[in-house]
């Protein structure tokens, strides 16, 4: 399959409500949207890096430059028999996993469409819907209790609460008092250190399914140490950016659960290997989110249909995030289940009218 041309956009979508995590507050979602073209078909993907390097080190500005100047010129005008071949071409570049994933994921969509098959079947997934939970940002305890109640009422399968120092134990005490049987987890986005071990041990009292990424974004070793002192399983997010990171975390018992974000790990080739490695270690995985538009959300849904995605993911209804999405389909849950978009590839199509309104910049790359 020969990639004839690419379109690279920078897109901005206002968020319905600000989203606050330990590292800051987001009020809008700004992301690169990539279209790869071949034989009258288009493949789509979005980049999940943030404007500022506060979740991981990649940035939107850096990724736009790398895509435009380095990665897209390496693939446009070139033929690839399958996505693994394209992925191999990007391996020599250090890190920049999210930028590489953007190209690789768009090609998976293009390739699946060229074969007239749904992406999930090429990835090894099955089923027509996935279990999902929600990730609730940091806010006042009383309004968080109302948001938990309303999402449990909507049938979401798990509630993940964002925590940070000073907004942790009191929040959990309140949540457990009001929702004794709820499937609860917390996500710290790397805001604690081993010096907080005593505080983190107190979280063992709240029957959390796991504690996500309590310690530094690049420190697997400290997580292994912490796990020896905690009953609650540790789930790693930021720390797992390569297959080797996953191997090291599994070998050292630093992660008893893994959050897979296909963008964070550089694309599907690595996501599939991490999925399989975790399965071999009997470690369950789930699909995280980065407040994606419908394009990234559809990708996440297809990935979540693989067999070791046994815990509910973060891919909740698009209407929780955006007034209007850039795709024509509505990605909405019923009773905590998100249907898999039907059709070839990721199964969604762009709403070109709204995309135009939401586009900050637009460029074409030809061979
Ligand atoms: O750590 O999983 C995270 C959002 C932005 C950056 C990091 C994270 C998140 C979320 C939200 O938790 C997941 C979603 O609802 O898309
Ligand atoms: Mg996380």
From TrEMBL:
Keyword Zinc: no
Key words of the record: Lyase, Magnesium, Metal-binding
SUPFAM superfamilies tied to this protein: Enolase C-terminal domain-like, Enolase N-terminal domain-like
Reported cofactor(s): a divalent metal cation
Single GO MF annotation: O-succinylbenzoate synthase activity
Signal sequence region: none
This protein's record includes keyword Ribosomal protein: no
Official protein name in the record: o-succinylbenzoate synthase
